[in-house]
Amino acid sequence: MGIRIAAIFLALLLSVPAFSKDFSGTFFDGDHAFRKFSMGAMIGLGPSLLNGAEDIYGEKQTVAVSLNFRMAFPISKRLAVVTDLGFDYLSQGIGSKYSYLHRTVRDTIKVSSIEVTASLNISFAEHFFIRLGPSVRFPDFDETVSVDEVVVFNGDPEYARSVWLDAVAALGAKSGSAEFALRGSYEFLGFYKETPKYRNANIHEVRLRFCFSYWFGQRSN
Amino acid sequence: MKKFALITALAIALVACTTPVGTQPPFVFSEKEGEVMLTDLVGLDFSLVCSIDGAEKKCGLVFKNFHEQYESGYCGYNVCSWGREVPGFLNASILSIQVKDENTGEVKPLISYFQEEITYLKGDSYVPSAMALNTGAPITEITLNGFYHGNEWIKRDTTIAICDTLFADKNGKLDFSVLDGWGNKIRLTMDLGAVLKRNDASTLDSRQAYKNHSAYLEFYWSVDTGLLTVDAIKKEFSQYRSELTKRDGQFLFVSPIQDELIRNGGFNKNTFSIPVVIYGN
User: Fold this and answer.
1) For residue B137, which residues of chain A lie inside 8 Å, CB to CB?
2) Predicted complex ipTM exceeds 0.85
3) Residue A148 lies inside a defined structural domain of this protein
4) pTM, rounded to two decimals
5) Is residue A22 part of a domain?
6) pLDDT tier at A19, thresholds 50, 70, 90
7) For chain A, how many structural domains are there in total?
8) Which 3 state secondary structure label does DSSP give A218?
9) What three-state secondary structure class fits B226?
10) Cβ–Cβ of A153/B135 closer than 8 Å?
11) CB–CB of A55 and B134 under 8 A?
12) Is there a contact between B136 and A198 if contact means CB atoms under 8 Å apart?
């Protein structure tokens, strides 16, 4: 079900350029961010808050890094669709240390995910823009459970969801090839799916990334 | 004055180093190896339980835990801390320890009758993740990826339903043996017929009990003098693997029955109470 919703969102957003029309004389006919199809690369770093995880793991904050390949499709002078393909990695992960039958158990979870984002880029001043759109992630969990330093489980937990859906909003400035943005997102499908065995596993990720992008071939813009 | 302060500080530091400070671990693990025999253990703790489901009344036994062995720990400054020694199965399996219901002939692993926590066993796939521990439903089965036969580890997935109860027959006779793969055996027989005959839903009593820091209402039956008959325990231990286990202890403990009654047989000379679980309305 999650995959279908994500696919529909993605298709709708990618179809936006097809509806482009002449925006001359309107708000969208002002300064521009992208005059032609552009490609770029982005690196982001920032905290992730796994809301709800504190009840299970005792902590909820972690640090993540993201790398993206980007494409921008101009629609009008102020509007563009920006798509990102990359990965997001909860490098620090979240973990828990507890005692089970008097033995020390460590449970750590690291997640790397392939991420596809399609967002609508609206330039509202000479260099400033906002970007809104959905993002679909295909996460790969790496959970390690060890008892007294002996690893007893390593792999994908059965309660991990295979697709995440995020609502992404970014605020930034672009000048020439360089772009700085503050990107926030909310993952609303649920980090873990609720199964009959695991109830109330209601974890949602709130991400904040400080991003730097480089757009190729912008001088001729 | 400075010298005095320095000497005092040094003296305090010295005393601090030599006095056992901090808390002694409340237990010590005695790790078993290979296929575990009954004689590797100090004893087994069982509990009597009864249940009412409508008009149906049943009584039986559940396995509570491995009996703890008390060992002297560290002594200093006239204070000795005593460590509880509990068996660990990180490098061993206890699958060959079986319980045989002598009434029916049915044989099940001892861990089938475990009620709450499962000791980490060699080859056990169940060590709870934080998620399973905090949001998971209570486990009702465990899967082992093998078991020992002698010193050989045989890889074979084996799933065991746990939290089982060893029920007495319809006359209230409870007759069971605990066996191991090496021929050691211990048998206990008791008659709960009079307890079942005398009690029903109307004789239930209740009291406040605590578990995991939360209070709940525990129902129980009071068992009057002479209602429970126990045959003296029969122990046939022939193979011993270490000197540690060559003891004449009681080995089987059944709460709340007095140890003396288990050892020598007879009927109960004191009143005691058996917890009762109520199903349905």
Assistant:
1) 196-199
2) no
3) yes
4) 0.66
5) no
6) very low
7) 1
8) coil
9) coil
10) no
11) yes
12) yes
